[in-house]
Design a protein that fits this description.
By secondary structure, this protein is α/β, with parallel strands linked by helices. The chain has one domain: Glycoside hydrolase/deacetylase (TIM Barrel, Alpha-Beta Barrel). Helix content is 36%, strand content 14%. The chain is built from 10 helices and 11 strands. The strands form 3 sheets. Strands 1, 2, 3, 10 and 11 form a 5-stranded parallel beta sheet that branches. Strands 4-5-7-6 form a 4-stranded mixed beta sheet, with no helix packed on it. Strand 4, helix 5 and strand 5 form a beta-alpha-beta unit. It is globular and about 45 Å long. The mean pLDDT is 95. The structure holds zinc ion (ZN).
Length: 273
């Protein structure tokens, strides 16, 4: 079975988890580390002959257009992660649409040739209350969304009873949910990010095997900063700090094992689009 792997292309300071300390207006003062971290990912993908989906933040595309072109040149899928990392849960439909428009303009300006067909909302902020955003994605000719975490474990996101495998969420739009497995009625995340850093690799491996055994490919995600233990440390509340900094030095080694043990490709390919 072929699973999907995706990267949310943003830098360490773009994360919602740090937004209480580093506001958007101060992003330009932060050290840009996304290029070197992304190149490590690209080299790792090349070594394992894996193509991935990159959900690019428009703000990043404006800063490092050559990196975005390189991702495309190395045969990965380019998709959209908004422009300013605006949470859909904090936006009006007009604000969401404006941010989406700006993200697409940034990508076009960067010089990539692909017309993106996939979208991932910052911090998985497509929840029950923000399904209105799907109509806007349809209007912009997106073919899939990958923003729903089908579980109720996290305080800020998730749709607890959403399907675990890709499905049509509207007439023209697929939803490609992040990897979760149901065990004894409980949903366990095995889709990457902080969960990948937190759980031992053997646990994630077992969860993915279970999902694949049930005929469900998983959708995995990471950020370039999750491979970077050398990033600047900021003081944030304990739970947020654990979410951001736990296990950073082991991510790359775990990812090597993951790419060795499972087959991965782009979300577009998994959907057959
Ligand atoms: Zn993000």
């Amino acid at each position: 079975m072929i699973n999907a792997i995706s990267i949310d292309l943003e830098d360490w300071f773009c994360v919602s988890n740090l937004s209480g300390v580093i506001q958007k207006d101060h992003w330009d003062e932060c050290e840009l580390r996304v290029e070197s971290n992304t190149r490590r990912l690209l080299d790792l993908f090349d070594r394992h002959n894996v193509r991935a989906t990159f959900f690019v933040l428009g703000w990043i595309a404006d800063r490092v257009p050559a990196l975005v072109r390189e991702i495309e040149a190395r045969n990965h899928e380019i998709a959209v992660h908004g422009h300013d990392h605006l949470l859909v849960t904090k936006a009006t439909p007009q604000e969401f649409e404006r941010d989406l428009q700006r993200a697409l303009e940034s990508l076009a300006r960067s010089g990539v040739r692909q017309q993106p067909i996939g979208f991932r909302a910052p911090s998985f902020s497509i929840v029950k209350e923000t399904k209105w955003a799907l109509d806007i994605l349809e209007r912009f000719n997106f073919q899939y969304d990958s923003s729903v975490f089908p579980m109720g474990l996290h305080p800020d996101y998730g749709i607890p009873n959403a399907p675990l495998k890709p499905y049509k969420i509207t007439e023209r739009l697929y939803e490609v949910p992040l990897g979760c497995v149901e065990i004894f009625g409980k949903r366990i995340p095995c889709g990457g990010g902080g969960y990948f850093r937190f759980f031992p690799y053997t646990f994630t491996k077992r969860m993915i095997e279970l999902s694949n055994g049930r005929g469900i490919p998983i959708v995995f995600y990471l950020h370039p900063w999750e491979l970077d233990p050398g990033q600047p440390k900021v003081k944030i509340p304990l739970m947020k700090s654990i979410r951001h900094y736990y296990g950073l030095s082991q991510t790359e080694g775990k990812l090597e094992m993951l790419l060795r043990d499972f087959q991965f490709t782009t979300i577009r390919k998994v959907l057959g689009l």
